[in-house]
Design a protein that fits this description.
By secondary structure, the chain is an alpha+beta fold. The protein has one domain (2-247): outer membrane lipoprotein receptor (LolB), chain A (Clam), CATH 2.50.20.10. 15% of the residues lie in helices and 34% in strands. The protein has helices spanning 2-15, 52-62, 155-167, and strands at 48-50, 67-77, 82-92, 96-101, 111-114, 120-123, 132-135, 171-175, 189-195, 202-209, 216-223, 226-238. A twelve-stranded antiparallel beta sheet has the order 1-8-9-10-11-12-2-3-4-5-6-7, covered by helices on one side. Strand 3 and strand 4 (96-101) form a beta hairpin. Helix 2 (52-62) runs antiparallel to helix 3. It is globular, with a radius of gyration of 18 Å.
């Protein structure tokens, strides 16, 4: 009995390792190198203005979404390697969330679901698809390489958490006009979140927004000035009419 529990736990840790990345944010078919490519420098020049009120308004607007679906990609960085993952994400109001890993490899097909009751369920990918199990919402198996909880990686939650941090004193600066960002196919609005620190404000998040819809296109995370992950949100469809059964496992 104890052995089976250990096996299942180990398998789930492997299949859920996906967003143990983070971000979910980039399109990937697992690309892991022996050495990490140097992430983009935090340095960014643009004419800025205070963005606190704007971000709160954005959070209020996103909370009104009935549902959304998108292709998400995550690229995480460390001193020794760079990993890239790809997934399909679905969200429905009342706390429902589904993450499906689409990266090539043994994680392909792994599913993570959060129900409207807050319950978190996981299912293995490929030959491990027969394994399903409940997880505690704050289980360490859900923590991505960038420190984020995979079960809390939907846009309404991420944007609201940032709004709360701003309310607690984190600074929010944004570009006064759309600017060019290498790697993105259009001009974007840049939002920087600065964490108060004894040595001065430190960049913690940099978000690149579509200038028209204000939907995040890419979300970079930093730790002590070093970029630790980048997440992309592509093909976002809002109010797509998702069925509740999608969030059952």
């Amino acid at each position: 009995m104890g052995l089976m529990t250990t096996i299942k736990t180990t398998i789930c840790m492997l299949t859920l390792a996906f967003f143990s990345s983070g971000v979910e944010p980039s399109s990937l078919s697992v690309i892991v190198g022996a050495a990490a490519a140097t992430p983009q420098s935090p340095a960014c020049t643009y004419t800025s203005r205070d963005g606190a009120e704007f971000w709160q308004s954005l959070s209020n607007s996103i909370k009104q979404w009935k549902d959304y679906t998108c292709d998400s990609e995550l690229e995480s960085y460390s001193s020794k390697q760079r990993a890239h993952y790809r997934a399909k994400t679905h969200y429905k109001k009342d706390n429902q969330f589904r993450l499906e890993i689409t990266s090539a490899g043994y994680k392909n097909g792994s599913v993570l679901v959060r129900t409207n009751s807050g319950k978190v369920r996981a299912q293995g990918g490929l030959m491990l698809a027969y394994i399903k199990m409940d997880l505690e919402p704050n289980s360490r198996m859900l923590i991505l390489p960038n420190g984020r909880n995979a079960a809390q990686s939907d846009l309404p939650t991420l944007v609201d958490e940032l709004a709360q941090r701003i309310a607690r004193g984190h600074k929010c600066n944004m570009s006064a006009t759309p600017v060019i960002e290498p790697g993105l196919d259009k001009k974007v609005i840049i939002v920087d979140i600065l964490k108060p620190d004894a040595s001065g404000d430190v960049l913690s998040d940099r978000i690149f927004l579509d200038p028209g819809s204000h939907i995040p296109m890419r979300w970079d995370l930093f730790d002590n000035g070093k970029k630790i992950s980048a997440a992309w949100f592509k093909n976002v469809r809002i109010n797509a009419g998702l069925d509740d059964e999608l969030f059952q496992l």
